[in-house]
Amino acid sequence: MNFIITGATSGIGFETLKQLVKNGHLVFAVGRDFSKINSYIQDNKNQIKQYVFDFVNVRDIEKLFLDFELNNEKFDGLVHCAGIEETVPLTLYTPDKIKQIYDINVFSGIELLRHFTKKKYSNEGASVVFLSSVMGVLGQPGKIGYCSAKSAVLGMVKAGALEFAKRKIRVNAVLPGIVNTPMTENLFAHIVEEQIKQIVDMHPLGLGEVTDVAPTILFLLSENSKWITGQNFVIDGGYSIQ
Ligand SMILES: NC(=O)c1ccc[n+]([C@@H]2O[C@H](COP(=O)([O-])OP(=O)(O)OC[C@H]3O[C@@H](n4cnc5c(N)ncnc54)[C@H](OP(=O)(O)O)[C@@H]3O)[C@@H](O)[C@H]2O)c1
Fold first, then answer.
1. Structural domains in the chain, sorted by start
2. 86-124: per-residue pLDDT in tens?
């Protein structure tokens, strides 16, 4: 089967890429810096097609789809893992920064969905998974841009699920708590030790690993979830139940 993974060069997207490849699928991997995973790509080059794309260029997503070499086949799934996080007090936010968060996390997601769901690109019964976050349903100081963008993803998933149900295309979201990835390393590099401890303590099962999240994405891409659409899958080690 054929899958698109954005954010395939790092973290949750890279783990999803690896699990799809392991299951024998062809993955259309989208990222900016493939040098980070070059040796993995070389070892699996028959199952991975690379596409360099920056999601700040939302309007060029149509061209990205035209560039995909599908060889008369269609896609069976899309996972939009590309995303950015920003933790700063609102006074330090700028309209441009908020726009960047929305361009990558939200507007690109809508544009990817718009093209993916065209009959020429996707099979009936295809599955789309968006990366929201527990921050899409909870709040944290300094995260107005990120929390609101990840909430918007949840609205997108529900409306998209209803709109494309007629083609049996399913649209769901996963909502991770804090997972050990470069994004989290970057967050931890900008806060003090005590704040890191607070975040860790808020996860009753400890922080997550990418291998805690990718299996749910694989499940949502698979036939085993063919009656599930418009749902939010919280994967957060218990963060949100307190
Ligand atoms: N890690 C967490 O704790 C956590 C928790 C909840 C939700 N999430 C969500 O899960 C998703 C993946 O996060 P992660 O932790 O795996 O992040 P990550 O390791 O930082 O990876 C982010 C990915 O997004 C890509 N990306 C960033 N900006 C881009 C842009 N302008 N254009 C194209 N690609 C871009 C990066 O590509 P390049 O590296 O090639 O530039 C990279 O592949 C995000 O949506 C994030 O918000 C993460």
1. 2-177+210-241 (3.40.50.720)
2. 998 999 999 999 999 999 999 999 999 999 999 999 999
Q: Which residue's alpha carbon is nearest to atom 20 within ligand 1?
A: 183
Cβ–ligand 1 contact at 108 (below 6 Å): no
Q: Kindly state if the Cβ of 54 falls inside 6 Å of ligand 1.
A: yes
Q: How far is CA 110 from each of CA 47, 58, 62, 187, 216, rounded to the nearest angstrom?
A: 26, 9, 12, 26, 22
Q: Whose Cα sits closest to atom 19 in ligand 1?
A: 11
| Rounded Cα–Cα distance for residues 21 and 217 (Å) | 14
Q: Distance of alpha carbon 178 from its chain centroid, rounded?
A: 14
**Beta carbon of 133 within 6 Å of any ligand 1 atom:** yes
Is 146 considered catalytic here? yes
Of 6, 188, 34, 8, nearest in space to 104 by CA: 6
Residues of the chain with pLDDT under 50: none
